[in-house]
Amino acid sequence: MKDHKFWLPLIALHSGLRAEEAAKLKVTDLRQIEGIWCFSVEDTKTAAGTRIVPVHPRLIRLGLLSYHEQVSKKGAGPLWPEIKPSADGRYSEKFCAWWSHFRHLVGLGRSGLKFHSFRHTFISSLQVAGVPETLSGQLAGHVVNVGITYGVYGGKLLSAPERLALIERLDFGVDLSHLEPAG
Considering the chain, what is the average pLDDT of its residues? Predict the structure, then answer.
């Protein structure tokens, strides 16, 4: 079974979750909403960070739901049981240190590149796909600087299927088909 070292970069790229948000997901945070598999991001950096982000179909093809099913058999605890919080309570600290070393080993040693770059790529891909900033902000968990009408009252009715349709438009310009199971 693939562990968090496989899944966290893929989740960050395909959902825009911050490292800490992805690292501390619980089994119950990956669930169906309106028939769509979603990440329910609740324990976040900011109030705007609380959000629903559909699981990109590629993550499903790669086996995330099978992984979820296996971990669910052990109870409703953490989605990544091998991740333990650091002394200051951060779940992503050890993983991000590992990632920094690992990315150099696989030839991603370019200056300025870090785990948070997956989030930047996700948001840039939303922009390239023509997703309006207010909707991109909802998916990324950002406060969008718009007027009171959309900023305070808007976006509450965006359904899980509508959110999925936005995410399905994304093209990261990289072929990940070699990660998909044969068949």
Answer: 84
Q: Which two tokens stand for residue 166?
A: 């936005």
pLDDT tens per residue, range 111-133: 766 777 888 889 999 999 999 88
**CA distances for 160 relative to 38, 56, 148, 156, 167, angstroms:** 8, 12, 24, 11, 11
Q: Is 137 exposed, middle or buried (0-12, 13-18, 19+ CB in 10 A)?
A: buried
pLDDT at residue 31, rounded to an integer: 96
Residue 174's pLDDT band, with cuts at 50, 70 and 90, is confident
Q: Which residues contact 28 (CB under 8 A, 6 or more apart)?
A: 40, 76
Residues 6 or more apart whose CB falls under 8 angstroms from that of 109 comprise 103
Largest distance between two CA atoms of the chain: 50
Which tokens sit at 106?
């696989």
Using the CB atoms, write b or e for 22-61: b if 16+ within 10 Å. Answer: bbbbebebbeebeebbbbebeebeeeebebbbbbbebbee
- Contact (Cβ atoms closer than 8 angstroms) between residue 80 and residue 29: no
**Three-class SS state of 2:** coil
